[in-house]
């Protein structure tokens, strides 16, 4: 592809995703508010724009990886935002924002002749660095087909989940509520075993060969919680996903018993150490209640 793609939001996820595109030979025009990002991005061969509007003036396809629904609304529709840019035709939102924001942003961008696609991702910073994310793509089929080759540079799996704005977002929220709930339930269950005298690594071997296995037994426990390492996903961002999913379920008239419990555990962890902690702090919260060590319970591999 010879034309440049725009990329707004070069944080923990956006920077490695944009690096994958640059390494694959795509030209990019980047934009981020944080100091120091520009130098790192230009060092990889990316061009820079001062504002999202400048990105939208220069690029027909613009991707974004932004922290909150409010940030996406600001970048897409606010002063100096993407809407009204001279070149933009397709907006690809890789952020997790929930379906309501995705639908509202898509409707407003449509007034400017821009097609919006949901493309939230799963796989964390590690998956982003490796270009091995899962992408949950929804929106008009022609636009999806056009951006899929680029998305395949950041995602090992690109799933087409629907033709409507918001469907990719619902898929992502469902995944993240399950992933968070699995972490809480796994910490609690492992605490029972460890306090009873079982060896944590033996427990994981058994669980991963049995019906209790899940993303926490497979990855977050052995790689992060037990060796005392961060997960690389902020507690506040995870709380955002859990809350969006619980709210969505309740709006659909679905009782969200376990989702609400997960939300309260996350809220408690935030009340203890603030929002700017890693998601691994949930394990620290549970170990305090349990009176047993989970975080750093086994030596980290060197
Ligand atoms: P982050 O906070 O590290 O990065 C967001 C970036 O957006 C920052 O660099 C910030 O400066 C920039 N930004 C914010 N407002 C801006 C604006 N108005 N103009 C330009 N830049 C702006 O967040 P992240 O961890 O990279 O997550 C990004 C999105 O991906 C979130 O929606 C998150 O929920 C989702 N996500 C994160 C992970 C993860 O493991 N971190 C995994 C999957 C999905």
Task: Name a few traits of the molecule.
Rossmann fold, 302 residues, six-stranded parallel β-sheet, three-stranded mixed β-sheet, alpha/beta
Mean pLDDT: 97
Low-confidence stretches are none
* CATH homologous superfamily label of the largest domain: NAD(P)-binding Rossmann-like Domain
CATH topology of the largest domain: Rossmann fold
Radius of gyration: 20 Å
What report would you give on this structure?
The protein is α/β, with parallel strands linked by helices and 302 residues long. The chain is built from 13 helices and nine strands. It has helices at residues 14-23, 37-43, 52-58, 69-77, 99-110, 124-130, 141-151, 167-195, 200-208, 215-225, 235-251, 257-273, 281-290, and strands at 5-8, 28-31, 47-48, 61-64, 90-93, 115-118, 121-122, 133-138, 155-162. A six-stranded parallel beta sheet has the order 3-2-1-4-5-6, with helices on both faces. A three-stranded mixed beta sheet has the order 7-8-9. Strand 5 (90-93), helix 5 and strand 6 (115-118) form a beta-alpha-beta unit. The chain is globular. Nicotinamide-adenine-dinucleotide binds at residues 8-14, 31-34, 52, 65-67, 71, 74-75, 95-96, 121-122, 124-125, 232-233, 237.
The gist of it:
By secondary structure, this protein is α/β, with parallel strands linked by helices.
């Amino acid at each position: 592809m010879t034309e440049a793609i725009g990329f707004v939001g070069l944080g923990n996820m956006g920077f490695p995703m944009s690096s994958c595109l640059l390494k694959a030979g795509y030209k990019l025009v980047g934009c981020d508010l944080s100091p120091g990002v520009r130098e790192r991005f230009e060092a990889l061969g990316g061009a820079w724009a001062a504002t999202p509007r400048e990105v939208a003036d220069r690029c027909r396809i613009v991707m974004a990886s932004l922290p909150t629904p409010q940030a996406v609304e600001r970048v897409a529709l606010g002063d100096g935002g993407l809407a009204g840019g001279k070149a933009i035709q397709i907006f690809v939102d890789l952020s997790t924002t929930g379906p309501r924001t995705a639908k509202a942003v898509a409707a407003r961008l449509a007034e400017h002749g821009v097609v919006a696609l949901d493309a939230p991702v799963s796989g964390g910073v590690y998956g982003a660095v490796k270009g091995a994310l899962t992408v949950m793509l929804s929106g008009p089929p022609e636009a999806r087909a056009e951006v899929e080759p680029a998305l395949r540079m950041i995602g090992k799996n690109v799933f087409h989940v629907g033709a409507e704005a918001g469907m990719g977002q619902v898929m992502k929220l469902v995944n993240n509520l399950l992933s968070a709930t699995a972490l809480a339930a796994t910490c609690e269950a492992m605490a029972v075993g460890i306090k009873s005298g079982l060896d944590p690594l033996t427990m994981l071997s058994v669980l991963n060969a049995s019906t209790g296995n899940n993303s926490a037994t497979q990855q977050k426990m052995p790689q992060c919680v037990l060796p005392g390492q961060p997960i690389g996903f902020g507690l506040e961002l995870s709380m955002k996903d859990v809350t969006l999913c619980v709210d969505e379920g309740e709006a659909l008239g679905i009782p969200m018993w376990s989702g609400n419990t997960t939300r309260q555990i996350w809220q408690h962890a935030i009340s203890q150490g603030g929002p700017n902690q890693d998601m691994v702090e949930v394990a620290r919260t549970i170990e305090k209640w349990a009176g047993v060590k989970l975080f750093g319970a086994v030596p980290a591999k060197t």
